[in-house]
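Propose amino acids for all 208 sites.
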């Protein structure tokens, strides 16, 4: 597994490129942190959409969010995501997401031949055996350790993504909580969050 150090160094020039980014929320719903992340990306010159897959519902605990997600069902959740992305997919989207939203983003990116990239924050997903992409750039940021993204799982995921044709970078953040980029959650780790955004902006610049 190709693993990057905690504090990545990103050179200048990230603002020169413009990406169209579809950013999916976590199992907590479309919280302020998602909108703040979108504003950060817009401030870097990118176009960003933040679809609400939960129809306005937000949750205070991961358990509540997961229960609601199970009530909706995976098929319906992906249907909502596909419908949200469809009007913009011809532009060549970068799919991105937080935790549950990252798993949604991965599924859509692997099925969209126009996808420009995949930015995964705190989460991954199963990979279909027949998944195939043409050197799709993928960047994953995840805590170390992470109860939802174990070392064994990530090793297998990395190998499977490579076999599918993705070009994957993995960044681990020791001691951070699972959803460490959300300032309103106990998981929050300011140092890890800022390092993540620095590296992610560099990644987006590399896609132009």
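Proposal:
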């Amino acid at each position: 597994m190709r693993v990057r150090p905690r504090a990545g160094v990103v050179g200048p020039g990230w603002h020169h490129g413009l990406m169209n980014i579809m950013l999916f929320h976590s199992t907590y719903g479309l919280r302020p942190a998602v909108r703040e992340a979108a504003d950060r990306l817009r401030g870097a010159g990118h176009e960003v959409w933040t679809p609400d897959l939960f129809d306005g519902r937000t949750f205070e605990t991961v358990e509540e969010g997961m229960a609601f997600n199970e009530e909706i069902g995976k098929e319906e959740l992906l249907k909502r995501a596909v419908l949200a992305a469809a009007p913009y997919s011809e532009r060549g989207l970068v799919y991105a997401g937080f935790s549950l939203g990252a798993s949604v983003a991965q599924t859509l990116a692997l099925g969209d031949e126009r996808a420009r990239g995949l930015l995964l924050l705190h989460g991954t997903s199963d990979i279909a055996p027949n998944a195939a992409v043409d050197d799709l750039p993928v960047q994953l940021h995840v805590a170390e350790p992470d109860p939802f993204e174990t070392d064994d799982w990530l090793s297998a995921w990395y190998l499977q993504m490579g076999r599918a044709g993705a070009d994957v970078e993995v960044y681990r953040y020791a001691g951070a909580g699972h959803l460490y980029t959300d300032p309103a959650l106990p998981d929050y780790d300011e140092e890890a969050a800022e390092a993540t955004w620095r590296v992610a902006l560099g990644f987006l610049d590399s896609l132009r």
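The radius of gyration is 16 Å. Helices lie at 32-43, 62-72, 74-85, 100-110, 151-164, 190-206.
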